[in-house]
């Protein structure tokens, strides 16, 4: 048997797994990133974890074919270099070569969102579709496009950052230093912040009964309050869904996907978010596009990252 | 020597040319489409014209390798079928098979805008770039994306129709039956119509001195008046450029092109249109995208269609 390792490197945690060739996870482990210890110590922890997992699963060393890593920020997959990962404090790090040195295995790296969406395209909600556009609604908003199994990266590997198109000139400050970017609204953070801000500005909400301090409100609480009949929470999700619909009205004619896969914590709002999104999108799209693509929630949950990383690495290795 | 035929089928005229393998036009001819005579008569005219051109150029029949056709509307290039071309009154026409029957040569067809942009990517303003996003500003607005020599078509071959995203709910009626679509503003037609409408609504313009009837104003007149110092014309081109910039602010992060090629009659306004477009785009784009792609006018003029059709057909034939 042949196996692949998938690694999802986050700012807070790293998840490692060993998978078979069709994406089943045999063993996996999550551990804190502790980015302050530096890249070499982190990569040594990853190599050690892989070795332990392999022994736990009783897999011979030569049956591990390849290692795939999803890394946040800007990645050059061709050179195997992490160009810039702010949360990890990585700059121009030749991750693939370093980890290959530690493990003796071929290592392929790409941006974490791309490999998450690749996982959904290959083994999740996008399976069986040719043109998979995927979005993750998490702390921020990011996107990736997988066309017949090939990840679109564009010039300088920069395709996908639609979260930073300004949509509200009088909106919230964005992490990028500007104002009112799409992800200040369409993100888990943005959903919670809209609810908090409107309560602070004097609107009433069930959330005030649940939380003594509005700062404790999370996006999942907004969904919960909406389901309990809270008008403010319903309106926040409605506005958020419509804003995403307006963004997708540009993406659909540009790419013509046959499925849009929506993942990340913010997507757990499900139809509360998707219904207004679809309504707005149907209002804006040319007749020829309407109802000619599916809209689906991501299916692989938190493990889409390691599944995508492992399956993509297997594909790269086959082509190499 | 090997040669290719490029054919650009329009609602009004058809242009045929014989080209060498690097896209030089040896001979070409344009003739009226006369769509009322039906598809078979039109294809017979094309076959006859190709034969005449070949004789004029003194090329032996067996040195014509392949024929490429650009057709307006929705095209299935894999099946070689024109799915729908409203101006030609074509529906589900197996154009490639029919023309192959008449000529004995392999025939490849695609949407005319895609092959126009393919021509620019292969032999025009996009030459040397990997991710070419092209727009044609003509009667309408359409776009195509050519990635490392491959045309992106998307699901149902529908990618590229960004002209029909509504941007102004109180704007002009659009040919698609809706209101305020992008192409009601960003098109040669839209530029002329904005000027005409504002004059009819009481604004003053140099164009009133030039034209007794505002209906005679064309987009090129608006450029001309702008260069002659007309404030209204300047503002029309400025608003049009900014609207295009706002559209491109979604396209750039979605695709990450390294060049945007702008062609069609409306693009002849040049910097009068491109300057406000770039300004708006730079305001909206994330720092990482700014100044990392070129913006260029199309270079092949009216012949991009036949050049693109011929070069693309050669590429298809090589891969077949």
Helix content of chain A: 25-40%
Radius of gyration of chain A: 20 Å
Strand runs of chain A, count: 13
Order of helices and strands of chain A: EEEHEEEEHEHEEEHHHHHEHEH
Number of domains of chain A: 2
Q: Please give the CATH class of the largest domain in chain A.
A: Alpha Beta
What is the 3D form of chain A?
globular
Give the biggest sheet of chain A: 5 strands, mixed
**CATH homologous superfamily (4th level) name of the largest domain in chain A:** ATPase, nucleotide binding domain
Oligomer, anyone? homodimer
Content of β-strand of chain A = 15-25%
Protein name (chains A, B): Glucokinase
Organism (chains A, B): Paenibacillus vini
InterPro entries (chains A, B): ATPase_NBD, ROK
Family (chains A, B): Belongs to the ROK (NagC/XylR) family.
């Amino acid at each position: 048997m042949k196996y692949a390792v998938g690694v999802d490197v986050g700012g807070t945690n790293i998840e490692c797994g060993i998978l078979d060739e069709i994406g089943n996870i045999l063993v996996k482990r999550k551990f804190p990133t502790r980015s302050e210890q530096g890249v070499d110590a982190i990569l040594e922890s990853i190599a050690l974890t892989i070795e332990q997992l392999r022994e736990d699963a009783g897999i011979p060393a030569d049956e591990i074919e390849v290692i795939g890593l999803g890394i946040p920020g800007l990645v050059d997959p061709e050179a195997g270099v992490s160009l810039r990962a702010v949360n990890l404090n990585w700059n121009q790090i030749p991750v693939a070569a370093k980890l290959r040195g530690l493990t003796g295995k071929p290592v392929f790296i790409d941006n974490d969102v791309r490999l998450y969406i690749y996982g959904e395209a290959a083994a999740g909600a996008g399976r069986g579709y040719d043109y998979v556009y995927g979005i993750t609604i998490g702390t921020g908003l990011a996107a990736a496009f997988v066309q017949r199994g090939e990840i679109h990266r564009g010039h300088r590997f920069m395709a996908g950052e639609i979260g930073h198109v300004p949509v509200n000139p009088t909106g919230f400050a964005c992490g990028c230093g500007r104002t009112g970017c799409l992800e200040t609204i369409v993100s888990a953070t943005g959903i919670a912040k809209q609810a908090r801000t409107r309560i602070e500005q004097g609107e009433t909400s069930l959330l005030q009964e649940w939380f003594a301090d509005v700062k404790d409100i999370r996006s999942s609480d907004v969904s919960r309050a909406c389901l309990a009949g809270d008008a403010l929470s319903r309106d926040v999700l409605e506005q958020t869904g419509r804003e995403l619909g307006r963004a997708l009205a540009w993406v659909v004619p540009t790419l013509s996907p046959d499925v849009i896969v929506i993942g990340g914590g913010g997507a757990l709002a499900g139809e509360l978010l998707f219904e207004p999104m679809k309504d707005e999108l149907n209002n804006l799209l040319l007749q020829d596009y309407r109802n000619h693509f599916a809209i689906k929630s991501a299916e692989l949950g938190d493990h889409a990252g390691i599944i995508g990383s492992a399956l993509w690495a297997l594909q790269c290795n086959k082509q190499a």
